[in-house]
Amino acid sequence: MTDGKIIDYKSAKMSMRPDDHRRKWDKDEFERIATERLKAELEEEEERTKKKAPPVKRELLKQRDYKVDLDSKLGKSVVITKNTPTSQSGGYYCNVCDCVVKDSINFLDHINGKKHQRNLGMSMKIERSTLDQVKARFSFNKRKLEEKKQDYELDTRLREAAEEEARLKELRRERRRDKKRKIEETEDPDDSPAQSELAQIMGFSGFGGSKK
């Protein structure tokens, strides 16, 4: 036996001399058999390699375009029986991997993990951004910042305008109150001594109207 495989010794030629009755094996014949066997094994291995399925090309890792629901079941009670489906048996259910995770932290670890991403058909590799993509992102962020600044300035101007309008309204109300008070004082028939004295000093005949 050689390398765990059986060799057919009967097919090997034996060299016999008339004066030597011991059998001697033909080394060249054994070497030829070993070479043929090795060639056959290599061909068989090559065939197996060709029959293997081509590697699956997976998408690059990308950002989720949806919000992960972690709060919809908070504060709710659910009755679970032996007939309750797995997706409703409590915890956070992953329909991609068909499993239930008991808390939100482990659920986030699961959906961000390698196994979940492979089941989604994605690898853990991230697309490398080009120079043009980086420039476009900078332009987008700059534009968003300018829009935010404009919105802030607009809000500030609107707030200042509202405050100024409130001040004007208060000033108009104050003027109306002063005017009303003066009218009431003018129409008052009783002149107090202090008012009469003040009127005499200033050269007026008096405040208010005269009695008939």
From TrEMBL:
SUPFAM superfamilies with a match to the protein in the record: beta-beta-alpha zinc fingers (SSF57667)
Sorted UniProt keywords: DNA-binding, Metal-binding, Nucleus, Zinc, Zinc-finger
Cross-referenced Gene3D superfamilies: Classic Zinc Finger
Region of interest called Disordered, as start-end residue ranges on this chain: 172-212
Cellular component per GO, a single term: spliceosomal complex
GO BP, sorted A to Z: mRNA splicing, via spliceosome
Pfam family, one: zf-C2H2_jaz
InterPro entries: Matrin/U1-like-C_Znf_C2H2, Snu23, Znf_C2H2_jaz, Znf_C2H2_sf
Organism in which the protein naturally occurs: Papilio xuthus
Domain called U1-type: residue spans: 89-123
Molecular function in Gene Ontology: DNA binding; zinc ion binding
Name assigned to this protein: Zinc finger matrin-type protein 2-like isoform X1
